[in-house]
Amino acid sequence: MAQGTVEARHGALDEAALGIGRWRWDLRSQELVWSEEERAIFGLAPGAPVPGFAAFSAMIHPDDRARVVAAVSETLAQRRLRHSIGFRILRPDGTMRQILSHGRLVMGLDGKPISLEGVDLDLTDTQADPALERPQRAPCPDKSPHIAALRPGEEQDALLRVALEAGRMTVWQLDLQKRLVQVDGDVARLIGLSHVPPELPVAVFENHVDPEDLPLLRAAEAAALRGEPMQVELRLVLETGGRRWLRLMGEPRPDAMGRPQRLVGVAYDISARKEAEEKLRESEAHYRAVFAAIDEGFCTCEMIVDETGAPVDYRFLEANPLFESMTGLVNAVGRTALELVPNLERHWIEIYARVGLGGETLRFELPSDAMGRWFNVFAAPLAAPGRFALVFKDVTDRRRSEEALRESEAMFRSLTEAMPQLVWSARPDGSCDFFNRRWTDCTGASTEMAMGDGWRAFYHPDDQPAIDRLWPQALRTGEPYEIEYRLRHRDGSYRWMLARGVPVRDEAGGILRWMGTCTDIHDLKLAHQRQQILLGEMEHRVKNILALVQAVARQTFGRIPEASSALEAYGGRLQSLAGAYSHLNHESWERASLRHIVATSIGGCGARAEAWSLDGPKVMLPPRSAVPVSMAVHELCTNAVKYGALSVPEGRVTIHWSLGPGDRLTLVWAEADGPHVVPPARAGFGMRMIETVLAVEAGGTVRLDFRPEGVRCEIEVPIRPEPGLRVE
């Protein structure tokens, strides 16, 4: 708070304590303005309307009224700069008060009177303080009852003596030529001496002035010598070693030549005010520290009204450091809102008028399109009429985020309501907080019944153990959640559902919530069960047919010695074919493991386990490739057992495969440590069958190399993702 404001506050406090009221008469508008202290002197309530001239005249004692009017009229007519009048007033409660009124005529630049202003001193209750030790004076007759009968000069002296006897101030007169001070009243108490003579040299008084304040006193004396009024505040050094603040006010009195001859004035103790000012400064310093440290925008304002009293604008009086960053307004203090933002919305002025003029306390959140910001505001009235304080935050980013979130949530709800699946969300602890309307469509129950853990009551009891195991595990590890279970339908039956849930994470990886779906797979589940039954039936029938074919072959060729080897090879091929079909059937004819097919084919030929090894990634083959590869490996194994590496104890076979460019599978059969290999004169039936089947069924190729150290066969089959091949 500005120093002037502090002095104004405590000046007012001193005036109240001294019974001094201020007044001003505007000669142009004929308006009277009174301070609160003036209202108190005349017995009016705080804030009460100032009476007009007729009402004011009626409050002056009838015996004094004509004299007061005459004195004021004389001042205006003769352009007297100052006057003092003593008179009595009658308060509204019927009590009478004795008033000493000092007035000053204020002139404009054009030399015409602008106003008459001054102070009134209430002398009614003045009496000496018996607790104070006062210097002994000669008895003075009580002149106060006879003031009205005195001449003007005598009247003023008598009234000042009454004030002197009240102990409120000391009257002094300084002879500028002799440098002697004449004092009256309780000057000993003010200066802190046991006795002060009625007249003393200026130097004696200056000896008691604090050295730091002596320049102020001498500057005031120099101004008085120039004919200027004197007003100075200084500290006196007491005999006890303490300090006392004193205020001196005086006016020069000229001699016949118009030169300042003497100073006449008053002095009074302002120590209490100075002490209060110091405390207030400390309070203001604390207030400023808090004011600057607050993490919100803060300002004080005052309303501006037009001639009808309607609010038209408001002015910023104070603002903390965050005000500018919160509002974007630079150098706002002392300027009005419409100066800073000419197109500011009218509703801001109307709202703040309710606070500053109407005394309301409001909290609200509103946007300003003119400023491009949203504000959260707390507004409260201050003691001074029309003034108010604001504590506010720029919440633009939050409001934009909320708006984006609302749009996102609206889009999310639109999407989830349009989806055929049941959509749900859960908090990080697993309690569900959202289900789309598909929940009600499926179960016939409200979504409120499913919130939290209520959804568990709708699942088949036999599926609860799996849910109790997998859902907490997902919550604990953050891994995706997937399970098949039966959900109770609205008609009381249970339908199979596939539930999947994934965590939604923040930037740090923490789980914000879980989002998931439940898909009705009941019909698919039943179809799969029927498919398994049909596949089992087909496998049984295929095996029976192959067994019948093998029995017919044995019956037909078993008694022909020359056909025994061919019959054995034929039977092996049928077994390999049956094994491949059986494996595919177990995989629902969707996929078959390459490693399993190769191992089954070699094992079915009776090869020793230690004689062969497999190496390659995990590959799942589609049906169209699985059967030809199985028959090819069977043929290679049969030849190796009869003629190649698997026909001798030390022989061995390695089979390895890999995936190459163009989604092609390459499988290499390599024999070693077997009998010396001699290329055959012509290709056998088995190799011709392998080449034909791989080329026609799988679009593959076979390269057979009869190396002396062992047979090497390279099979290449194209892999296409769409048939269902998976590499894991």
Task: Outline the structure in words.
The protein is built from 20 helices and 29 strands. With 728 residues, the protein is an alpha+beta fold. The strands form six sheets. A six-stranded antiparallel β-sheet has the order 8-7-6-11-10-9, sandwiched between helices. The chain has a five-stranded antiparallel β-sheet with strand order 2-1-5-4-3. β3 (82-90) and β4 (96-107) form a beta hairpin. α1 runs antiparallel to α9, α17 (564-586) runs antiparallel to α19 (623-642) and α18 (594-604) runs parallel beside α19. The protein is rod-shaped and about 170 Å long. The two termini are 77 Å apart.
Q: Descriptors for this entry?
A:
728 residues; alpha+beta; six-stranded antiparallel sheet; disordered N terminus; disordered C terminus
